[in-house]
Protein 1
Amino acid sequence: MGDREVDQQLVLRAQRGDKHAFELLVAKYQRKLGRLLSRLVRDPAEVEDVTQEAFIKAYRALPSFRGDSAFYTWLYRIAINTAKNYLVAMGRRAPTSTGFDHEDAETFEDAEQLRDTATPEAELLGKQIATTVNRAMEQLPEDLRTAITLREIEGLSYEEIATVMNCPIGTVRSRIFRARESIAAELRPLLDVDGNRRW
Amino acid sequence: MSEEISRLMDGEVDGIETHALWHSLRHRQAMMTWTCYHAIGDALRGEVGVTRDLREDVAKRLAVEPTVLAPSASAPPRPATWAWAVAATLAAVAVVGWTAWSLVDATPAGLSGSVVAGSMRGTEIGPSTVSADYLLAHQEYAPSAMLQGMGPYLRDVAVTREVKP
């Protein structure tokens, strides 16, 4: 079961009336979507509003989602249309192009472009998160750092990582989990500040 | 639990385990772990968001949304009307065909069976068993509908008379 199958299971559950399953998708994709929308809507408060609206529109449109494309690709289209409609309603001109196509929605390799367009506040917030995670990564033992890197950045499966690292799958599973837990210990205080969670 | 969530988000769990884990993720702590682990992945890929956590705000709005109930994409399609018509036609043809075959089959086999039955009856009901005089004497009590059934007996009587002289 890959990442797309995990999403598909959550979508199926949401389509059967499980709102919590959709919340798990929100938790998974809100950063990615917020980052995408910040290219169209510069103000962070407006980005939040449009991101929320995009998720609600996606939830309402769930019966029409048949799984022909990846969930994020479908969500991406809804988000772009929501942002454009928002800008038109606000009397602002919507960009004719977002600068990246649907294939980019799958990989989203536009970090450099976004750094140029994000607001100073958003950039500072992003830097805090990135600094914390990078610092935690540096403190990890080599085998844990390699395992989490191969998984999160290279996108390898556990089986592929086991081959690369020449160790059993159970060891890969344990290393990735321990790496995540170590980083999470540093990150959690940043994610929950006075009940107003941030990234 | 956190290790299971770690494997779940990587798609490294089987179907039965997945079902239980989705249920477990209803608990706040498990949900926080799910959110945190995904945030780590996003940060490592340089996809850090520019907004605060919107999950609870979206959840509040979802709470007042009508629950969506989409038909399952994997549900088998209902048979079309023509399919029912074809099935009914085939069933009718099968019944008629079976009935007709039974009749055709009964003709030779049934006839031979009747001959055998008739001969056996003729053998079993001999003049010593039933008196022909008795049958003739009581023939008037036999219902007219039974006349066909009297044929073998009448033949037996004729045979008996030929034997007597």
Protein 2
Amino acid sequence: MTVRFTLNGRPVSISTAPHRRLLDVLREELNLTGTKEGCGIGECGACTVLVNGKAVNSCLVLIGQIESAIITTIEGIADGANLQPLQQNFIRAGAVQCGFCTPGVILSAYALLSENPQPTEEQVAAAISGNLCRCTGYKQIIEAVMLTAQERSAE
Amino acid sequence: MIPRFDFVRPRSLDEALKVLGENSGAMTVIAGGTDVIPGMQQGDARFWATQTVLDIHHLAELRSIVKDGAGWRLGAGLTFSEIAAHAHIRAEFPLLASAAASIGSMQIRNRATLAGNFVNNAACADSVPPLLVYDARVHVRSLTGEREMPLAEFLLAPNRTALARDELVTEILLPAVPQGYAGRFYKLGRRRGIAVSRITLALLLKVDATLVEDVRIASGAVTPIGARFPELESDVRGKSASDNLWASLAQDLGNAVLERTGLRWSSPYKLPVLQQALFGMLCDLSSARRP
């Protein structure tokens, strides 16, 4: 089957098998390996991408379901070699350790900040509660998101 | 690994019903996919015979929220994010809004749909207890007709509903809640995020001066399917509201659940929690009324 969608701002048309998940197509056919597979059943959030601006688990979406949708992956949020402020702040706050959960967490936080530019810590924690991180203990992640929100409000 | 299948993406609800009516045999309907896809991924026997997947997630006909004379009609394909954020649902059906906000994770709520939560009739479906205390009705359609029934009758037995193979749930009808009702939703899982519920309870209460005019109780996860407790409810109607009445009602709920499930390894742990939760909610609601 052929599926057309917008990926990181560019139109994509791909011929693939209907049982492929969005995750499989991103990683194996489009070579966008920033999106990770963890549990494969929607519980860890490592495969989080944005579909029409909303955070979703790409392991729970069949490729045919994203016809005409706008998809953003971790590769699509930096401006060329310039990282997003959110990415910069993950580095600054020490929110990246092994890094496996990081693309997913950043996209969940990115979706939150797009809808709610000034979240409370509680709202940040809720927004990333679908992303498991076994390294950081989440404290530095929440700090990085709050830092980004504060910088934006100072601008 | 997900098995191979064909994929059909209809352009309208009518087309979906036509495809389903003509090929219902080995067809699996998918909306948000948060139950079906992990099921397939894990080799669940429910999907062994699947030859075709019919996607209905994008159908606009299943995404509306309208108010009519009888109450609200919610599209079967609304996501839990949409339900949790909807101002009117939050105001008029707060138990449903809190259940919606508690389901899975943000990523799951952005995909998972209202009808998708109960069409497989899993005991742990969080939206079911609130829908049951609101006396929700289910509207279903097929190529040849449509029918409507109370959710309580739609849910037959664990993993079984009244939905025929050629039918789709199209709407959930919520009758307007009369003045004077207040309610609570309770959920206990092993953690707060992405947890399968161990206990859910929905409670609606109307107390007139000091008399219990109406009480509606529904449980999930602790009973084989989400269900109301009509005997307990009628027992307390007309009685004088007091902490003693609430204590005996909570006690009776524990016994009623035990009767339905038999003794399980988890009963000594869950039943006291269930009883305490109901007692706490009842006390909380009646103290909120006191001046």
